[in-house]
Amino acid sequence: MIVFFDTGKAAGHAVEATEHAVEAAEHTSGGMPQLDFSTFPSQIFWLAIAFVLLYLALDRYLIPRIGGAIEERKDRIADDLDMAARKKAEADAAMLAYDKNLADARAKANFIAAENRAALDEQLAKETAAQEAELDKSAAKAEKQIAKARSEAMKHVEEIALDVAADMVATLGGIKADPKKLQKALETARAGSAAS
Amino acid sequence: MDPLHQFNIERYGEFHLFGLDLSFTNSSFFALLAVALVVAFLGFGSRKRALVPGRMQSLAELFYEFVAQMVRSTMGQEGFKFFPLIFSIFAFVLTSNLLGMFPYFFTVTSHIAVTGALSLMVISVVIIYGFLKHGLKFFKLFAPSGLPLALYFVIVPIEIISFLARPFSLAIRLFANMMAGHALMKVFASFIIMLGSAGAFSVLAILPFLTNTAVVGLEFLIAFLQAYVFALLSCIYLSDVSAEHIGH
Fold first, then answer.
1. What is the mean pLDDT of chain A?
2. Is B247 left (phi over 0), alpha (psi -120 to 50) or beta?
3. Which of A29, A61, A70 to mutate to test the interface with B (most CBs of B within 10 A)?
């Protein structure tokens, strides 16, 4: 405002005065200090020095140090993880071996048991067969005896029948029957009854 | 009170070279102070290189990993050669921004000369790296492959303009954020003084005071955020000229 007041005073040279005023404004506190180009070389010069110093310090010194520490830690952790993985693999292998041994032992036990069972079965079968054979033998003997007894009994029955028939003929007919004819007649009768 | 007074460059020592005024100023002092603080912080944090880090080492490594992650995620392992550059930019801008939060301290990054120089440096690195890496194929940056021919008449000018706009947007974003925020704090602070000395109305001074408290918090966020944005955009611009983007 003061500036424009000044230009009002300088009547007649308005354009020139305005130019002057703008220039003046830049150098007073009224303008933006950011647009005071006279300070640019100094700002940029010192910025360059500061920035180059910072860049060199970081690039040469600080980044390798911090990055190195981080890298070291990462490596260490990776190593530890590797070690852990290796240990785990070892433990797994041991576990596997143990399982295998266990399975082997179990299979062996099963095999032995099966073998024993087979032997026992065989022996049992053998004994059973022997026993059965003996039983069969005595059964056959008994049957033979029975058959013998029966045939003997049958023979006696025939003799009795013959006697009875001779007695019947003697009593009824009063004649002494020829035993040979009687036997023949009896045989015919038995054959007839068997046929009917 | 003039809210722009805080941005004044004050000469501490005259120094002229080749007819240029290279005087040592408050800007120079705070730029060097920022560098000294970063070096001291990281140097102190890394002095032991312990396997199990202490507090300072954790902080330094957190800072390092934060930037390293930013570089890796944008440029990949191949772009890691720019890590010192990005780290320097981020550390310098962040420290300057945060130093500016102290009352009566000068904010180096609130000047377009500084942010402009930084952004021109980034863009120069982008261009030089682009030409070194790709030669004249660098210009393929402006003509993305696989488009219909007619589209190139539109795309190429747009790409060129957007490339040329980068240094300006990079520089102005940081400078404007810093300047506007600090001016705002100053304005609200002068409201507190004005209302506080206004007799019966002085109770109302609590309003700008509360606002300013919130603004200070916001400014801390912006101080960090703008440093991050500046570094991240630098990474992205650099990754644009890395192999996979231009292609062979």
1. 81
2. left
3. A70
